[in-house]
Amino acid sequence: MPLRLLKYGLSRDYPVSGDIPATPDLKPSYDVVIVGGGGHGLSCAHHLSKYHGISSVAVIEKGYLAGGNTARNTTTIRSNYITPEGIAFYKEAVELFEGLSQELDFNVMFSQRGQLTLAHTEATLRSFHARAEMGKHLGTRTEVVDQKAVEKLVPSLNMDYGGALEILGGLWHADGGTARHDAVAWGYAAQASRRGVEIHQRTEVEGFEVVGDRVQAVKTNRGRITCGHVLIATGGMNYDVALMAGVELPIRCYPLQAMVTQPLKPWLHTLVSSVSLHTYLVQSSRGEVVIGGSSDPYQLYSTRSTLDMKEHLAEGAVHLFPFLQGVRLLRQWAGITDMTPDYSPIMGASPLENLWLDCGWGTWGFKATPVAGKRMAETIAEGRVPDILRPFALERFETFRLLNEMGATAASH
Amino acid sequence: MKILTCPMNGPRNIDEFQSFGPVRAEPDPDRTADADWSRHLFRAENRRGIVIEWWRHVPSNYFFLAERDLVSNEIIRTFDASERRAQP
Ligand SMILES: Cc1cc2nc3c(=O)[nH]c(=O)nc-3n(C[C@H](O)[C@H](O)[C@H](O)COP(=O)(O)OP(=O)(O)OC[C@H]3O[C@@H](n4cnc5c(N)ncnc54)[C@H](O)[C@@H]3O)c2cc1C
């Protein structure tokens, strides 16, 4: 076996394919400089080069490719939000995931297995009705289901009949699913670099040269680059990076933690989330159970994990699926999330003419990787914010037109 | 387990406390332009550094202030709100 593998390894017919070229020297100038080589930045680079003929693009990443929140997220993809603006946007997000493996010629392992959110109180159930009606109206598959249907969807659930946390019903979202986060980022990176986009890893943006109302140059630890346009897509660092250009975003940073168990036989075929327990679970294609919950209870710039959160998530998971009690944890981790006051992103224009924002992705931005990249590329290429993005403008905080998605975001992302 | 020392109840598990975010100026709503009011509502302190925050000990419903480092998470000191009012 090893010898046969070696034959392929050494054969010229099967060259090692380096999907992403090594970091080249920085050029003095690019049409578009994308700050942040996470899923969002790479998706924008892909769309600029493939659909808008703009390939003089540099993606500047301070660490390694997609090592920020793209690497840390629990990969929930869904569109069962609250506001019509939010649902319309995330609906396009889900649709793009449906065709993403074809688009990228790379298997992103999109698994549209549906998401079940559980209600343990009448109040939660009422809020589900509102979400389901809005979702149906906008053409997504979102419905309220009763106890019997919940039992049928997930037979191993502890319904807790008569108990304090009895499951009264659920919000069933057949469009929901998951995908492999690394594959999404690497697929975009491979496509973009094939079309001439340069990906500069271990290159940190340290400041911007602002002249009048334009960014003239981007200062990095490897040199200065002048730019036509700049996109900020730096995940948890969005507040800091925007501030370097003098733009103060309404963002506060909170850690978000998650953990994963040892692999088990496939038994959980949907995504499950509980509003009251602040816990959600999904079984990965490797069989590991990924468990996540709400953000840390106070602001912090740290990716440390806590025992408190581990206990909290384990408690929720074991309550829903008591047989998980003896299962071991493999890993626990955290990402710094850029939280906005209304749990919606900030996309579009900034106070500077050629500086664009793809920020405020908090705990919910993985699912938007394709759509945000597509729509931000369109924005930059055409110099006009498309209608679907307009509600997410930074100005909404000054006009008090917030898009409150807290109720659809705080317990599952 | 992280311990927070409450000015009234002494050292307690941080689970017993609720964070109310960084202290901010309290503008007069009748004399504040919309843009400033928006700043007041939506742009809380998010600097990498030491901030003063409102905290509440939930069981005793006691509000107080804490100075905390947003990077190291070190709680530098906690004090009663009257101390803040006493400051010029
Ligand atoms: C534990 C956890 C669970 C989550 N679960 C979900 C989920 O289930 N579903 C969902 O939709 N979302 C989820 N999210 C949110 C999601 O991960 C993010 O919103 C999304 O990945 C953001 O992608 P991005 O490309 O914008 O940012 P990132 O992936 O964070 O990429 C930003 C990049 O910018 C780089 N960078 C930062 N500063 C600089 C600089 N000065 N110069 C150069 N580069 C810089 C960083 O190194 C980083 O690689 C979760 C997040 C966490 C932490």
Automatic annotation (TrEMBL), chain A:
Domain (FAD dependent oxidoreductase) ranges: 31-378
Q: Which GO terms describe its cellular component?
A: cytoplasm
- Lineage, top-rank taxon, reads Bacteria
- InterPro entries annotated for this entry? FAD-dep_OxRdtase (IPR006076), FAD/NAD-bd_sf (IPR036188)
Q: Give an example GO molecular function.
A: oxidoreductase activity
The alphabetized UniProt keywords are: Oxidoreductase
**Gene3D superfamilies given in the database record:** D-Amino Acid Oxidase, subunit A, domain 2, FAD/NAD(P)-binding domain
Task: Quote the protein name from its UniProt record.
Answer: N-methylglutamate dehydrogenase subunit A
Tell me which species this is from.
Answer: Mesorhizobium qingshengii
Q: What is the lineage of its organism?
A: Bacteria, Pseudomonadati, Pseudomonadota, Alphaproteobacteria, Hyphomicrobiales
From TrEMBL, chain B:
* The protein's name in its UniProt record: N-methylglutamate dehydrogenase subunit B
Which branch of life, at top level? Bacteria
Q: Which GO terms describe its biological process?
A: tetrahydrofolate metabolic process
InterPro entries in alphabetical order: SoxD, SoxD_sf
One of the record's GO molecular function terms: sarcosine oxidase activity
Please list the residue ranges that the record marks as compositionally biased, kind Basic and acidic residues: 25-35
Segments for region (Disordered):
15-35
